[in-house]
Specification:
Layout lengths: L24 E5 L8 H15 L6 E5 L15 E5 L5 H19 L3 E4 L5 H11 L3 E4 L11 H8 L3 E4 L2 H11 L6 E3 L16 H7 L5 E6 L11 H14 L3 E6 L5 H10 L6 E5 L6 H6 L3 E4 L7 H8 L4 E4 L15 E3 L4 H13 L7 H12 L1 H15 L18
Parallel strand pairs: 1-2, 1-4, 2-3, 4-5, 5-6, 6-7, 8-9, 8-11, 9-10, 11-12, 12-13
Helix pairs in contact: 1-13, 2-3, 3-4, 7-11, 12-13
Amino acid sequence: MSKTHLLSEPATLSPSLKGKARGHDLFTFLQIFEREGGIQSYVKDILSAYLALNAQPRADVMLLRDGPGCPNPFENSRFKFHYFKSQSEAAGRARFTAALLTQLIRQRPRQVFCGHIKLATLVQSFCQPLGIPYTVLTYGKEVWSPLSPREQQALQRAAAVWTISRYSRDQLCSANNLALDRVQLLPCVVDTHRFTPGPKSSALVERYGLSGAKVLMTVARLWSGDIYKGVDVTIRALPTIAQAFPDIKYLVIGRGDDQPRLAQLARDLGVADQVVFAGFVPTEDLPEHYRVADAYVMPSQEGFGIVYLEALACGLPVLSGDADGSADPLQDGRLGWRVPHRDAAAVATACIEMLRGEDRRCNGAFLREQILQTFGLEAHQRRVADLLQVSSPRPSPHPSVASATSYTE
């Protein structure tokens, strides 16, 4: 049977899914392959770590909105994927729900990992009566506001709740009546084998007209609903930065419906020639783009900010907002500049300092070493292993595990 076998109604399940194996794990996600984003990247890193831990059992992975034809780098004898994408969202969810209940009753997994708060009430309603522990994975803004009473209950009754940063944990708990010690930290990770320092690509320098320039860079969605990313704030800072560095260029990587507004802002401020909109860049091409920059700038409000890790791993000085989850990748300012995220004057001052390169936070070798130790693949695997060791044998809804991060509050 193909690994991309599509589960449907319980009566059509294959014989391999029958019986009570009582040894495997079950993951449930909304979507991880047909869309790119922070949550999707976070989930893929968890699956990669799970595969790297040979002591972990096989696992079934149920995907509500992905189809069997999507590229999947995780096809492996230890993962069996079940896809439920449908032209009718209601039909897909009904099939997903029926298959989940069948899996839980017939397979009796040792634990369930719920990959999004929107699935948590469903998972809790099935797992709790069956005595199967479940862990809820959270990311950022989706849990920072008060959730419905049922979603809050699903969090409170979970065996564990994971999230990506201290800030995200604090927002989640404050908004949803959850004790801080009920949430464990599993931060994002960066592939330091791919994101490395290196010379500027002459082809990219020519493509974007960066010859002889000092280059600031941002990688972000340019959606009108995501102005918190701070691209407009950085554009507002450019006239001041240009007084110190007349050859400044600002390379903006990303696409979205807010680009016309940002381009008009640059024209209004007289810095249109300094702003380069590169559009969408495939993930595999990002390392080469980071290397053409002299500093990474994103005065944002992030749950964590994987892009900060990517830039730091490439040896770039980094600027972030000062009231969000970027405190973790920047280690409370030890590895970068943290400024009020809507303050163009503060952004300008920090950018000038970064471009002068006199601060230790501009030392690329130092930055990369710190990222390797704290946010590299090996460190991430150790964290996942520690969290799995705590969560897997315990049906109790109140485990306690210390954060595995190497910095303290």
